[in-house]
Structure of 6-phosphogluconate dehydrogenase:
Amino acid sequence: MQLGLVGLGKMGFNMRERLREGGHEVIGFDPRPEVTDVPTLDALAEALEAPRIVWVMVPSGEITRTTIVSLSEVLSPGDLVIDGGNSRYTEDGPHAKLLDEKGIGFIDAGVSGGIWGLAEGYGLMVGGSDENIERAMPIFDTLRPPGPKEDGFVHAGEVGAGHFTKMVHNGVEYALMTAYAEGYEMLSAEPLVKSPQQVYQAWTNGTVVRSWLQQLLAKALKEDPKLAEISGYTDDSGEGRWTVEEAIRLKVPVPSIAASLFARFLSRQDDSPTMKAVAALRNQFGGHAVKRISESG
């Protein structure tokens, strides 16, 4: 299958490689000449055979909006745009309407997997019409992890449902990372425990708290047992905030997610072992930048 891919950053680049390994023809566009396949979006549209499918994998917000507006001007009726970035779900309706006025379809796709997705596959949460989802299914099947389709892929509902689901996913992720990190701080504080890393390593098999995030923390501690090279300063991508805001709107209590979000705010004021561990986890699973001690003072 042929696909246009806009945005060849950490995830987009690996997605292009995974799709090509799966037998698809992927033509990518990125402003950086060292990674792009074509020089402009116009050239991308010309290189694709109609009806086209174009996957947008750029930062959320204004960059996504301007990219979709630009695509609406170079694509044709019958084409399909997939927004695979971390857009807020409330932006999907306007994007879909803009494209629909040009006869172009729209899918919102929440994507999880970070820098490990190339080898392990990506968890996919998509929103859109049955017809559009079915049309893009060969792409989704190649990107998702191997195994039963329902384990790693969900058609969550209409337009907006994919990004709403990914938003909640990331809110849960915030809470899980903070719980693991708080456990690390407790283990580090007790002199009876000789190696918190060995504890987390042991928890990777046979325990009820084992998970991929927990395994990644064990890996991070093995690489830097005291997390001495990492500042506890931890950014938030926005989706944790959105989750809390939507929980307030829906009158749903999310105390753990809210507390983990506020813990990230706290990390910018007081360095702590807990937030060092969260920063290390974000670097392990997503390749997110960490502030080194030499940078932060």
Q: What stands out?
A: Residues 114 and 286 are 4 Å apart (CA to CA). The domain at 2-157 is CATH 3.40.50.720 (Rossmann fold).
